[in-house]
């Protein structure tokens, strides 16, 4: 579970972000003391920082600069000050991304997921994921069962990868669509249904008719 620290002085926004990220199984906390941010940052040791520009005492640029002296943690600026100069300044100070207010929570989630994956998930990543004599090859987007191999489209592979990452857990349709959208694939509810149907047909051809199960009204699971 990744720890995300929210530094936002609008408590309504901070609480909304915190609650939303916790629904995605992140451990999210927000600060209410804006005087000693670096000390709190070091104590909490987050894996990602959501940082507003306009803060009491010192602005977000100051704290980004101070945090960069002690950590390479990914930083996403969230701010209504979205002029190009503010974005350039944020990036020059070491920010990894910039999200303008007001923002869509799904867009923010996708950006958080992408940065966390780039920063942490690929460290020591294996090339093959295995489950009950099935093998998902990350290197060439193929799936194998009992020495039978099938090729997958980009979306089919990503769906299986998401489910393999959550073996035994139900993954919601919204979560799958967000991950696919993050990878520049246009996905809506109907498109996801078509991809799941095609993927199941390919798996059935290998004798895996019930490999992906539906949890009605919730999502999908590989048990």
In the CATH hierarchy, the architecture of the largest domain is 3-Layer(aba) Sandwich
What structural class should be given to the helix and strand makeup? alpha/beta
Characterize the overall form. Answer: elongated
Give the helix level as a range of percent. 40-55%
**Strands, count:** 12
Q: Span between N and C termini?
A: 21 Å
- The oligomeric state of the chains shown is single chain
What's the structural domain tally?
A: 2
Would you identify the regions where 5 or more consecutive residues have pLDDT less than 50?
none
Radius of gyration of CA atoms, rounded to a whole number? 20 Å
Determine the CATH superfamily of the largest domain.
Response regulator
**Main sheet characteristics:** 5 strands, parallel
Strand order of the largest sheet: 2-1-3-4-5
Mean pLDDT: 84
> What is the C-level CATH assignment of the largest domain?
Alpha Beta
Classify the fold: give the CATH topology of the largest domain.
Answer: Rossmann fold
Order of helices and strands: EHEHEHEHEHEEEEHEHHEE
Number of helices: 8
Question: What percent of residues are in strands?
Answer: 15-25%
InterPro entries: CheY-like_superfamily, OmpR/PhoB-type_DNA-bd, Sig_transdc_resp-reg_C-effctor, Sig_transdc_resp-reg_receiver, WalR-like, WH-like_DNA-bd_sf
Keywords: DNA-binding, Phosphoprotein, Transcription, Transcription regulation
GO biological process, one term: regulation of DNA-templated transcription
Domain OmpR/PhoB-type: 126-223
């Amino acid at each position: 579970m990744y720890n995300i620290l929210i530094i936002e002085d609008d408590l309504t926004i901070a609480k909304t972000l915190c609650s939303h990220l916790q629904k995605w199984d992140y451990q999210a906390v927000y600060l209410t003391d804006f005087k000693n941010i670096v000390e709190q940052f070091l104590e909490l040791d987050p894996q990602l920082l959501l940082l507003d520009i306009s803060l009491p005492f010192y602005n977000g640029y100051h704290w980004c600069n101070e945090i960069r002296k002690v950590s390479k943690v990914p930083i996403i600026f969230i701010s209504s000050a979205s002029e190009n100069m503010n974005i350039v300044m944020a990036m020059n100070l070491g920010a990894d991304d910039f999200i303008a207010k007001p923002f869509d929570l799904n867009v923010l989630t996708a950006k958080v997921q992408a940065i966390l994956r780039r920063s942490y998930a690929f460290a020591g990543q294996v090339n093959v994921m295995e489950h009950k004599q099935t093998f998902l090859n990350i290197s060439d987007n193929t799936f194998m069962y009992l020495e039978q191999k099938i090729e997958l489209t980009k979306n089919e592979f990503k769906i299986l990868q998401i489910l393999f990452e959550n073996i035994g857990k139900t993954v919601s349709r919204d979560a799958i669509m967000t991950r696919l959208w993050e990878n520049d694939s246009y996905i809506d509810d109907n498109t996801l249904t078509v991809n799941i149907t095609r993927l199941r047909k390919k798996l059935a051809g290998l004798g895996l008719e019930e490999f992906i199960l539906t949890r009605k009204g919730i999502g999908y699971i590989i048990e």
